[in-house]
Amino acid sequence: MAKYGKSAARRVKSAMHRRKRGTLKSSSGRRVRSRKQAIAIGLSEARSKGAKVPRKRGSRSSRKHANS
Question: Which pTM was predicted?
């Protein structure tokens, strides 16, 4: 199972609170309402700050072609 660092968990928690308050925005500047999107933003912020976050999974189609 993938492990996340404590600082990564704090970033995600912060993003979730900002979403709830309505202040979380995506890169396009729109307000984020989706829970999944808030988690993704939190993990992305954690990754950029150097927190322990497992690598992103590749898309299914690219993995299928790589195995062939």
Answer: 0.72
